[in-house]
Design brief:
By secondary structure, the chain is mainly beta. It has three domains: 80 residues, Immunoglobulin-like; 79 residues, Sandwich (Immunoglobulin-like); 146 residues, no CATH class. Helices cover 7% and strands 52% of the residues. The strands form six sheets. An eight-stranded antiparallel beta barrel has the order 18-19-20-23-24-26-27-28. The chain is globular and about 65 Å long.
Length: 360
Amino acid sequence: MRRLLPVVCISIAVLMALLAAACDKAPTAPNRSTGGTPAAVRLEITGPRSVAPGGTAQFAATVHMSDGTTRTVTAEAQWRSNSVDLTLSTPGLATAQRPGEGMLSASFNGLSSTREVILVPDGTYRLMGTVTNAVAPAGPVPIATVEVIAGTGRGLQSFTSEEGTYRLYGVAGDIELRVTKPGYQPRTERLSVTDHETRNIVLARAGDLPDVSGSYTLTIAAADTCRTMLPPEAMSRQYSATLTQVGSSLTIIAGGATFAKVAGWPANVIYNGRVELTGVSFRLGAPVCGGYYYGCDPPLIEQFAPSRFFMPLGFLKLEISPTALAGPLDGAIEVYEGPDASHLQRVASCDSRHRITLSR
């Protein structure tokens, strides 16, 4: 038994030494690198806000990571421009061709970003806005002339769109604008332009709007040059029409025929008409824009045979007379075939200046 004692003592001593060594050892910090590789969460385009016509500027694409770091990926990104006025050569290197504006876009590994670039001479700015009428219900004033008549940019001119918007590229400092349109009182605005700005302008009518509401006969006649391109029955179509006017807004409901349905709605209602002192205008569109024409021009689609459809497209400007509203349709008259308005194939088309008449 005595021979065992030294062995036991030695074992206890070794164990005590190991425990002491463990106590003296500093604690190990927890491993914080187990979160995985940082993910790319956002792509950003950086660069100048404006570029002078004829000038070139370098834009950069930067990826923002989930851990807060960034990485430049200009050379690896896919670059595009939406305008012929802003062209790309090497990645991110953009050249302005003429005054205007463009949108640069870049994409990388499923991320994308866009940036507006304004194309104006150095030291000048873009001035934009909307011209509306002063009488309720307020609405845009299309085809009004907005001209710089004094200051930097003198002589620049813009015509308002159908939504009443204008854009002038290359103005700066104290300037004077003149806004005109037949049937409206001219307006002069004095502005101080120190940055790219938006200034809206209100015009007063020179008289009361005519009342064109009532019942009409609507005739759509194709141009004579379309005889070799359209079937005979598409050269002229006639409908009844009811015009409803609220202020300057005009709604036209066509009847007396079979009209197609788009997304469950009959394609015989034109709700974007506008009455002015000098006439009536509206636009006919195609049945392609999400839902029920949200943000689009409504179509007029007559189903004049079991699988054949008549569709006029374009902009109309009609003059007002005591007996009729009449004028050109600048656009196309098209014929489609298909089981319904959602599955159409165009079989004939003629793009020209056609004739629209709404006779009382």
